[in-house]
């Protein structure tokens, strides 16, 4: 509930409706549990409002306490009532503050105000009497008195300045107050009435009113004049709101901090809104109020100090030689007082004219410009020199002045930002942020920069150090390598602080060339920042993935990736994941934006190795120059300055003009640069790209690009030839034959060097033995502590074996293995190696799953040789490698995830597992077709291959074995994904056989045999008329071709045709049935849906169907029936050969030999 005072105005001609309105509004408020504290009918009158219009209307005031809903309803009632001219809320209070207590508090406040005014007047009288007594005793002249006052002011705080602000509310006729009343903002005597606001007055109190006004104005002007004479800043200005009326009045509107600030500013006293303090809040009632104008708070007193400025000026008069050092850090606008700015500018003119600076010369200079009076007289200039503490400390004083100046500028910028936020004037938040950035950036730009002339000694020292480094580097790359051998040979890499321009006509490959440079720098460990104003950041990254993974850009763009592409793609993603690459695709950046963002990234990354801007002509300046050439000039200069500030090369792409298209030889030159003058001047290196095949289709140089070095400030110019691979948007090194000097005649052949074993696991040479001489001892299996996983493994992990687990992203492969490792690590040595996440991420996941973390060894590594070294040194029992697609061998020149890397690393770790008797578990990704990403030979090399399936929308996971040298295949393990990881499902049949309460046609239960155990599942079918076109046959969890074959068998041998019906079949729970024992159940579910007949709920069905319509027995029939009986099934239809030899208790088993006989049995059930 909140408290409101509402005034609504009724048209004078409809005053008779007021009582009825009040009654309806009271009822509305009471109906909403609100309270009406007071209602006043003011009758017809004429009042002024802030909108500067005079309304003659019937006024009603209501003091209410309501919630937001009732308040909105009341306002709507006002708006839709034609008799109500206008309504307005004149007072809002916080909740809990309401009822009659509000008016009691107001009366107490008024008494406090009167008491405060009485004490204040007594203080004035006492002070005036004291001053009069002091003057009589001293008998000194008024001049001496003023001098003493000025001297005291130097050591004492400035007195409070009192100003009179009078608010008037016009009575029936404004003219009754006289023409001398000015209705406009102002200061002191001019600030009588803020526009549109007033205090009620009448003829009876006019004389008292005028007398009080004159008294306060006189006191205010006297103290204000004294302060201004001394040249001191105001400390506290208390604005007293005065009214002498017959009764308390109300301001229809309010007076706030902005009104006070505007009034003072209009009279020449610049005051920010933030400097106005109104302890009693916004003024809405007539009365007397204390309003402090805090110009000299503890901060601003320190900022607006004059001593340092006087010491600088006085010190320069005593020591002219200090000028040349001081002028580097202090400028005229850094002085706070205007007279000091004038004096400093006069000194600057004298110094530039090589004339001495002292009180006499400076005063003469000021007199010649008619500025001596504004700056103070000769006496003040002499006092500056005499009062200086020490001329030798001028630089220290200058730094103080500079620091204070920057602080004031920051305060001014903050006020400007606050004003813009309070009054956006239609500007959105982005525009306001740009104003804020520009305000602070201007301050940073105007700061005195470090640097200046240096003696030759330190320069020689740095030169010697660089030469020694180059000598030790043996002529290698000294800057950031581009990855192009011939280009690096000519440039020694991209040098620190260089601005490198890459220019070409459209479609030549500017962005691709720059991205290739960025890619090489990132892979070399450099932190790189890319500003892409032409392409989105995602496209930049896609290009890098295409280049690193050598994946066709078209296939990557439309998603038609092949199996090998997925392996290379995941490898490229793994390579880029932890690199320090930052991409900003914000369009139309300004040089200030680029600089500020580069600084931020440099702080985060610990420095930048390379910055790339794509491209220069898409940048803009904050303030547009007269011409585009001027803008480009400013942008190029700023990029060069950025390179020097960041101490790294900056690459900027640039367009070329169309002039070269008209030349026979279309190779670009520097004059082809757009707005080339500034770019040629600022650039350290200019590279042009030319591909002849763009202009000449029959050229012999297809796939060849020329990189023309048009300018190199510290090296030779010339040409470099590179290979262009269009489908990868990639430039590569192009070989030149040393025998014939022809280009593009060499083909690359990767020869893996023969290296000594760095891990020492090769072992002795293999010995030939007789088979019967080999000891066939059953190795002790290692339990994973997960029974379902041990089941699929055939009883546990066999030492020396290699296990591969594949699955969809998010299926839970890494989660399951992390749970296994943390539990096994409590009793065995286990090493978990991840190449896809950091150790911190791994620890966070283990903590979230509440796993024990004390015994498990972990590492984040992708290099196979390093991992093998850890294995041979620590000798763990089990090693998990997540994943095989990110592993790489240094000896292979191929990206991780490629066919070569996956094949060789898998073979490498398979040999290591056999020779060290270590269990190695590999994690593998799968393609969108469901196959393992990588070569097929990978499945042949390993000992056990299993897939973790995750049905869409289900929390259950099935782990199925596809290959197992040490156990049964097609074994099935069932897990449930929970908040704490994977949990085993002890009774899968109960999960997959959760049938609804209401039986429906098309549902039947069957028993499948998964590995070594039976599993009950539900098969559902739906048969519906064909809507149009061909009949559909869809099977989920079943073989679709087998479904179509059985429908043909049913037509041939049972006479039931579904040619005009769509048939859909599904295994509930996401399980996939691969055995043939579900044939009979599938057809019976189809017939149940087709005939719209519900099959018995306690019926279990299994059996294989032949093409002649016969039912063939299935393996483990007796175990299947016992599993069904255990779950409450009473009847069964099975192949005749699968009948139990002995009757099963509580189950009637019907053995049938054909599909037609099964249908007969089903009819009689």
From TrEMBL:
Group of enzyme by EC: isomerase
Annotated protein name in UniProt: Replicative DNA helicase
Disordered: annotated span: 101-154
Any one of the GO CC terms: cytosol
RecA family profile domain residues: 778-926
An MF annotation (GO) of this entry: ATP-dependent DNA damage sensor activity
Ranges of biased composition (kind: Basic and acidic residues): 102-125
Gene3D superfamilies in the cross-refs: 3.30.230.10, 3.30.70.60, DNAb Helicase, Chain A, P-loop containing nucleotide triphosphate hydrolases, Ribosomal protein L9, C-terminal domain, Ribosomal protein L9, N-terminal domain
Keyword terms of this UniProt record: ATP-binding, DNA damage, DNA repair, DNA replication, DNA-binding, Helicase, Hydrolase, Isomerase, Metal-binding, Nucleotide-binding, Primosome, Ribonucleoprotein, Ribosomal protein, Stress response
Any Pfam family: Ribosomal_L9_N
Keyword Metal-binding attached: yes
Listed EC numbers: 5.6.2.3
